[in-house]
Fold this protein.
Amino acid sequence: MDMVCDDDSMPLQRKKVCVIGAGMAGLAAARELRREGHDVTVLEQSGDVGGQWLYDPRLDLADPLGADEPVKVHSSIYASLRLISARENMGFTDFHFAPKDDGGRDQRRFPGHREVYLYLKDFCDTFGLMELVRLNTRVLRVAMQQQPASRCRQWAVRSVDLAKAETEEVFDAVVVANGHYSQPRVPSIQGMEAWSGRQMHSHSYRTPEPFRGEVVVVVGSGESGKDIAMEVRQVAKEVHLVAQSMKEVTPGLAKVLAKHGASLHVQLHLERLCEDRRAVFGDGSSVVADTVIYCTGYDYSFPFLDTAGAVTVDDNRVGPLFEHVFPPSLAPSLSFIGIPIKVFAPWFFEAQAKWVAQVLSGRRTLPPEEEMLRSVEEWYRSREIASVPKKYTHDVSLFDITYMDEFGDKYCDFPRVGRWNTELLVASYINMLENLETFRDDYQDTDSIRKGVEAWQLAAQEIQVNQAASVGAQIQSWTS
């Protein structure tokens, strides 16, 4: 059980904290840590903030499957990507992701990826976070600093900049926020080593043009698989989308297949790849293909992190982590922000970051190590009883907001998810299932959603007016 320190006479501790990554989770962490009075340094390997949302047209042509670790290109976003979550359900509690009238901004409810990047840039500018961020700085190694005479654990962080100059610094705490949509998860398909066609992971997909006139097999019918298959179909000779089962053929996908059946087909299971470039499917049918694109997800990857085995990644289970944040044996000096998937982001990352910041300052305390470990084991057991595969350990369903609300209540007095937000989420999801091609632009709001959105827009306007006056003073107090 997390506890709040009620002793006002106890001074809060100011820690020197390193945040790894300046994406959505890292920026949430940076702001909350500084709000709590910590000395914050953010190390970001790219040339700008934004993480995944910083679109990178480059491809790692030497490693299109992304088998190397770490990958050389961080972002996995393709040029046409648009959100599948409504913007009203994304954003920080006090910095709404509201449409902006500025020229060139995307005001749609489901905007393109660039709008999220610009929103994160606005967030940085508003809260003066850029001064905390070191760009073009790649973390090489994070390891415990050996200090036998001291009871305080510290971390040595070695990094390298563009000039290939290496630096090693010591921090009181490290917050890992490097994201988990960069290291491709590649399936093992019989014959893939000998297949003579082009194979790549969706991590290396940017535009459909390279596939013009080709026969393309897209493995994986999740959101990105369907998106990419529908886009490539416009230029390819034909596209075969491989699903695990007929359950993945939603009514919306069935409509797309009926409309574009001449060039888009669904297959069940990719059985093997043959040297003569045939792709053989589960029913024995085959097609001679030019390219296979694996839309098979991503692995959690922390190649820089040396915890002497205290934290491991096993079939995409990062653990042990108390509440997906703190490794019990290394808490609170090591923490992870942004591990859970299927959560309201960055809202939930903000809640996690607030908790981490307050634990490091001493405002809140963690349970004993044994109790945290017991909690982790209980979580694992509950997932096993529910027949949830290990690789979905950190899958916190958006449709069950109980976990998110309970987390906010228990650990950082965080606001609960609004009822209309949940209703909007469910309505958007159902619309996507039913109308795959049009759900982002054609939707009907209920009265309660409409009222919620109106209140949200008014709050956004009020926040913008108030922030101009308050943030400057806030930043001055943080830096003094």
User: Anything to note?
Assistant: The chain has a mean pLDDT of 93. The first strand starts at residue 3 and ends at 4. The CA atoms of residues 44 and 54 lie 12 Å apart.
